[in-house]
User: Fold these one by one.
Assistant:
Number 1:
Amino acid sequence: MNYELTMLKNVVRAQKSAQSIAHRIRLLAMRSYDTAGFRNGTLGQVQKLQKMCCRAELFNGFCRFVKKALNRLPAGVRALLVEVYVKNRSRSDVAKRCGVNVGKVYRKLFAARKLFRDALEKEGCTERFFNESYGCFDWLCNDKD
């Protein structure tokens, strides 16, 4: 599995998920004063908040790994990865903008992903760590790239 690719392609999704969960946490916390309608009362609310907080922290940690690893890379490498994998620009689009052929873009992407994977590992996010921490999520990713 190309976990580095999965991380790049899903960083925006993870960020939006963390924000959505944080919003739901705030709403649930505000409703916590009225426990009459909640199934398990205050204890149930606290347990639900705890689960939601853990999930939000997982998504935030995911985003931190990606951002820190990207910041370790040279600007050109970082820009290429962001354009193709985060912003979903086509490789031919990137090639036209840079004035190079598509083959060169593919070669640079291959090298850039290797550098990104190395940077992730320096941050402590190995493939094993990724699988243990984030393997339970259904990531939308085409690993054939």
Number 2:
Amino acid sequence: MSKKRCGKLIKQIHTTLEKNANNAFREAELTMAQVDVLMELGSAPGFTLSLKELEKELLLSQPTVAGLVSRLVQKGLVEYCYDANDKRIKLACMTESGKKHRDRIVMLLDGAENRLLGGLTDTEKDIFIALLEKVCGSLK
């Protein structure tokens, strides 16, 4: 009997979710990585984060975050602004258009999560999320 490796199962889930998400966001000309930036900004106070904060939250390098934000600026979903107390700190600020896109994105992500967890009871969902959080915590 072959043993299933959890890493392989996680990779399969991730690949499928990312493929489905990229297909869903193609209409808006967004990638999943760009959606991640919008979601982080959407949950931040004032819809604003420094590029450093985005790097930390998304676990991405400075050049990657700078490129993602730059593409979102070109699309009019984000704009650059500067910290009122320190003009050296560059911030990414979500525009009104970005907020509207984020609302649609939340609906799409909620639908994807419902499909992902649809076969689980509420108790199983709670346990599954708790276990994922525990595994993520052990990797830090």
